[in-house]
Amino acid sequence: MSDAKILVAFGNDIAQVRVIGRATLQASQSLRDFGLEMIAAKVSRMLVNLGECEGMDSTFMGILAMIARRGAANSELRVEIVNADDNLKMLLDTLGLTRLFAFTHTEAAAEDWTALCNTVADDGIEQQQTILKAHEALMDADEGNVPKFKEVVEFLKQDLCQMSSRPIDPTTPLPARSSPRCKDSLS
Prior knowledge:
- The chain is an alpha/beta fold.
- It has 5 helices and 7 strands.
- It has one domain (5-186): STAS domain (Transcription Regulator spoIIAA).
- Strands 5-4-3-2-1-6-7 form a 7-stranded mixed beta sheet.
- Strand 2, helix 1 and strand 3 form a beta-alpha-beta unit.
């Protein structure tokens, strides 16, 4: 399985994401940034097409949950999962996430797809924060995830404290920043 390539499009109050390959931490930061940008832009729908997705790790699923929960709370953004096969639905269901999304097989037309760059911070702190926030989102989304990820979250918090030499406040949201997009547009 190859790491995911993430394509995005935006128009007519709809944000679209197409996941090609295996969706992992490597794509999570860029997806998080794009999702937060779309929430700030007050789009009404985000369509996440998993038709070419080969699998998802917990960090990626946590970022999807974070976007869905923040979108619903802040701007009434509805996240729709498009073309997910039974295995991907099962992954989401295993973590209690299917109730956060609408599922469909219909995507909106988009002409100008742009690739999100798979960015991972050089210093590791932002990467660790992304993993931490994703797993906290999983625990917030379904209390059944607390025993699954509690130790991971505690470890990440300790690791971040050591990396930054100062305590991490778990209530502080990650700063929103514009999504890094690769220069090549895809049609």
